[in-house]
Recover the amino acids of this structure.
């Protein structure tokens, strides 16, 4: 083959022997193109982005949460107060998320509901009528989380009536029980309307619909959904098992499918306490009273992850049994159901046990969660130091923050890329450091540095591998990646 037979693209690059310096400069437009390109890559290298388009969604792969295909574990927290008038201001939100960032918390569960409650941040004062101030407060919460690299779980209704919850929907429909909330067309329709309002909400700050924002990791259908056997209208006999389990399961299946129709991006879970479905003779919470069935309900196809909570003080069993409670739920989620498991709420009442016992117990629970690879843990609830401890279940950094920080190190070590750490994906190539100088001059990964590496770097200069690792391709040593680095690599050949 003669030199005239070589394949040369219209941009002036010789595909066989690679670009000459003159041809390369001509191809990219000399200084007029080099300067702005270098400036843009410098900005990308030094300025963290908060653009939702630059985030990947949390997904599942079997029994793991994954981001960009890599396994990820979460060190989380709940904050009930953050959407209230008590703490629901922009300054307060910033203070809370600054605390979380400092503690290494990277997943926060919050309420995306509030039916007919009092106060300036009542989210839905009347059916279908929404308080824009409350919605903008949540918009700001989402932005505050994203800026700090924190993901969110948004809960869409409450079993309990602190925020109105299921019983408020029933009251709006002229009913009185959770049975009617789960079964009436009118209440189911109002819940669907709320789901659509939240998922299609356009963030007033970012302009991104919530259903298109990867900051949100997961939608929870409800907080601690139950259907107890006697939670029926006054003129109706109590439910006979397993009828209440089937009603609850039907609601989970219907509403999770509806969310999937509206939003193909996000995960969905039940938000349940994770009780097994037993018999009347079994000890609570593993009897048949509340209608929950951890295995059956989380096996629904449109449920992506298994939710469970842990409150021995409320459920009247010894603190020491909490470790087995966690172990059993995680193992069953991973091995029997084949999905991730997350401990969505847990804590010990220090007004009953004291702070020392509380911290010792929580440390043991964190240990068993780590041992069995629980995919996320979120204690109830991590608050600022000036937040009133109204029930013994608040966690303050000054008292228990070391537990959260320690677990942050645990999940950091378990999360991330399982691929070869010595390889950077550059387009279709796997770039390597050929001489251990910290620079990835072997762009094609073939063990040599040739004109082909220069061509590959030029063609893939905008790839994630290059843009996210500018220091690995900073051949001219000016602290950033730009066109001059491609020229420098060419000059070394």
């Amino acid at each position: 083959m003669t030199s005239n037979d070589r394949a040369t693209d219209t941009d002036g690059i010789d595909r066989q022997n690679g670009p000459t310096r003159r041809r390369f400069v001509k191809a990219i437009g000399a200084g007029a193109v080099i300067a702005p390109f270098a400036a843009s890559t410098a900005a990308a290298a030094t300025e963290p982005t908060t653009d939702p388009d630059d985030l990947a969604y949390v997904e599942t792969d079997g029994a793991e949460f994954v981001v960009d295909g890599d396994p990820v574990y979460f060190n989380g927290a709940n904050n009930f107060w953050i959407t209230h008038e008590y703490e629901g201001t922009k300054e307060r939100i910033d203070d809370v998320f600054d605390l979380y960032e400092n503690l290494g918390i990277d997943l926060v569960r919050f309420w995306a509901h509030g039916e007919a409650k009092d106060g300036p941040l009542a989210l839905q004062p009347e059916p279908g009528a929404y308080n824009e101030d409350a919605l903008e407060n949540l918009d700001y919460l989402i932005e505050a989380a994203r800026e700090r690299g924190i993901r969110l779980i948004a809960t869409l209704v409450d079993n309990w009536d602190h925020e109105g919850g299921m019983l408020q929907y029933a009251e709006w429909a002229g009913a009185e029980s959770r049975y009617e909330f789960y079964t009436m067309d009118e209440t189911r329709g109002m819940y669907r309307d709320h789901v659509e309002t939240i998922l299609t909400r356009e963030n007033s700050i970012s302009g991104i619909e919530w259903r298109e924002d990867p900051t949100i990791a997961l939608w929870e259908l409800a907080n601690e959904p139950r259907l107890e056997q006697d939670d029926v209208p006054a003129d109706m006999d109590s439910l006979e098992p397993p009828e209440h389990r089937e009603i609850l399961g039907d609601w989970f299946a219907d509403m999770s499918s509806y969310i999937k129709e509206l939003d193909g991006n996000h995960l969905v879970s039940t938000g349940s306490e994770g009780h097994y479905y037993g018999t009347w003779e079994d000890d609570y919470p593993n009897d048949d009273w509340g209608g929950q069935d951890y295995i059956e309900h989380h096996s629904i196809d449109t449920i992506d992850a298994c939710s469970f909570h842990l409150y021995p003080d409320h459920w009247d069993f010894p603190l020491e049994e909490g470790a087995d409670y966690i172990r059993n739920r995680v193992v069953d989620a991973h091995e029997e159901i084949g999905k991730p498991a997350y401990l969505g709420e847990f804590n010990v009442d220090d007004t009953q046990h004291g702070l020392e016992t509380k911290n010792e117990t929580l440390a043991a629970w964190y240990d068993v969660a780590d041992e069995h690879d629980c995919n996320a843990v979120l204690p109830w609830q991590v608050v600022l130091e000036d937040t009133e401890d109204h029930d013994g279940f608040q966690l303050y950094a000054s008292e228990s923050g070391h537990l959260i920080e320690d677990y942050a190190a645990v999940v950091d070590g378990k999360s991330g890329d399982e691929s070869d750490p010595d390889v950077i994906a550059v387009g279709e190539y796997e770039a390597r450091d050929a001489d251990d100088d910290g620079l990835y001059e072997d762009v094609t990964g073939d063990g040599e540095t040739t004109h082909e590496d220069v061509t590959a770097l030029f063609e893939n200069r905008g790839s994630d591998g290059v843009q996210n690792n500018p220091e690995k391709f900073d051949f001219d040593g000016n602290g950033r990646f730009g066109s001059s680095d491609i020229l420098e690599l060419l000059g070394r050949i």
Summary: Confidence is low (pLDDT under 50) at residues 1-50. The chain has two domains: 3-50+419-491, 74-414. The longest helix spans residues 243-262.
